[in-house]
Amino acid sequence: MYRNNPSAWYFCEVRNEDPNTVAVVGAGLTGLVAAWRLVHQGWRVEVFERYPQAGGLVATFRVGGEELECFYHHLFTTDREYVALAQELGLAEHIRWLPSTMGIFSAGKLFPFGTPASLLRFSPFSPLDKLRFALSVLYLTRVRKPDRFSGVTAWEWIRRYAGRRVLELVWGPLLAQKFAERQGDVSMAWLWKKVQLRGQSRGAGGLREALGYMDGSFGRLVRTLAARLQERGVTFHLAQPVLTLRPTEAGLELRTRQGLRHFSRVLFTASPRELLQVARDSLPQGYQQQLARLEAAHALCLVLELDRPFLPFYWTNVADDSFPFGGVIEHTNLVAAERYGGCHVVYLSKYLFANHPLWQASKREVFETFLPHLPRLNPGFSPDWILAWHLFKAADAQPLVTCHYERQLPPMVTPIRGLYHCSMAHIYPEDRGQNYAVREANRVAALISQQRPEPARGR
Ligand SMILES: Cc1cc2nc3c(=O)[nH]c(=O)nc-3n(C[C@H](O)[C@H](O)[C@H](O)COP(=O)(O)OP(=O)(O)OC[C@H]3O[C@@H](n4cnc5c(N)ncnc54)[C@H](O)[C@@H]3O)c2cc1C
């Protein structure tokens, strides 16, 4: 009855005196895993999510009757926290480890890349470049701690130790693919960890890489987790963006379109920029400045459904800045096209910042910008091969890990009592990924539980 009377509804919902309830903002993997841990640690949990479905960046759509990620996804063999979670949920048998191949488009040609044999055949490098590339990679795989890399940019380090040509022909374009015009600001600690984990995910001698994929998409784990949370009494407020968040005497006040709610604890799992937007008025100046320094690139993925294969590799880096995209990920070179009704799935990936015209462009404009470049990669390509295409955009999809990032990173326990923040920006020195979302979610849930007050005597 009170639902028809806004003021009564407001009155009923204004207080949540229960100190055992945590509001989790964001139903991406971080929010879902944290909710899962918190429920097991005895908390009641309510999840608030901006979009009508859970999953965040692991959102999926259907191709040929099969779920597929809107943004390309795979696992590395080092992704142990994710695999452990899949085991816990009874999903580990759905993870398949599949042979992967990598290529690079450089100096107008497509080359295999990523193995010692392919390095020897990579003709844009001189023999000296090959030696310096190989030695620098070998060195990076041997160093165990990020300390010596955190104060130097990847650009400076590569130029100094691997040489200008190695930077310009390989590492520079790879950094540009992820960080656009901010490529020169990326910390060497980030690149070091990427090289190291990539090395570990290869077999002995760096010959073969296996990548993991979940049958039925990584959305399977998201859906299972959301269903298990609901079984355990977690309430999902979907399509309910948190509009503002502020401390009040009644607790932390969340405002959504449904009204106001109060919680003693809130875990915010969206980006630092989003936290600034919803809580700016309440956050101390110094903390606001810390959050504002944590920048991230946005992502565009154009997904093509083709009637035949496009390139011979799963992953192709486009080391040529005259292309409007930097990566071609041919998903069906990892997972058989038969799964998608015979469609060959190709992601064209671009990371950019808000000032880039393509970020504001319409879907068709992005498609028409990318399309003329496809025959440069495969001269036989014709637009007739395209059965369907889809464009997906995600803001703040790739945190920019700058020098001494570890010093800039604000703690997960914020200066506002009861408010915790755990997001992709908190992953360091690894690159963001599902595995680290699971790891950090485990960590923040443990922190929240550690700070739980002792139950009052006599209760
Ligand atoms: C292009 C691309 C490729 C990737 N490839 C891989 C890969 O190969 N392997 C891999 O493991 N990982 C990959 N990732 C990374 C992986 O998707 C992320 O690490 C992981 O999904 C992050 O989860 P999250 O919950 O931290 O963030 P998100 O998924 O961003 O979740 C945050 C959630 O908060 C919600 N939200 C935001 N603001 C509000 C608000 N005000 N109120 C309520 N809700 C709000 C959002 O809607 C979202 O659902 C990729 C990501 C991208 C973008």
Summarize the structure.
The protein has 459 residues and is α/β, with parallel strands linked by helices. The chain has helices at residues 6-13, 29-40, 80-88, 116-120, 127-142, 154-161, 164-179, 188-200, 219-231, 272-279, 285-293, 357-360, 363-370, 374-377, 405-408, 434-450; strands at residues 21-25, 44-48, 60-63, 66-69, 95-100, 102-106, 109-112, 209-214, 235-237, 244-248, 251-256, 259-263, 265-268, 296-306, 315-318, 327-330, 344-352, 386-399, 419-421.
Describe the structure.
With 459 residues, this protein is of the alpha/beta class. The protein folds into three domains: 161 residues, FAD/NAD(P)-binding domain; 125 residues, Protoporphyrinogen oxidase, mitochondrial, domain 2 (Polyamine Oxidase, Chain A, domain 2, Alpha-Beta Complex); 97 residues, Guanine Nucleotide Dissociation Inhibitor, domain 1, CATH 1.10.405. Helix content is 34%, strand content 23%. Strands 7-6-15-16-17-14-18 form a seven-stranded mixed sheet, with helices on both faces. A hairpin with a 2-residue loop joins strand 3 and strand 4. The chain is globular and about 65 Å long. The two termini are 33 Å apart. The structure holds flavin-adenine dinucleotide. The site of flavin-adenine dinucleotide has 36 residues, from helix 2, helix 10, strand 14, strand 18 and helix 16. The site of flavin-adenine dinucleotide (FAD) has 36 residues, from helix 2, helix 10, strand 14, strand 18 and helix 16.
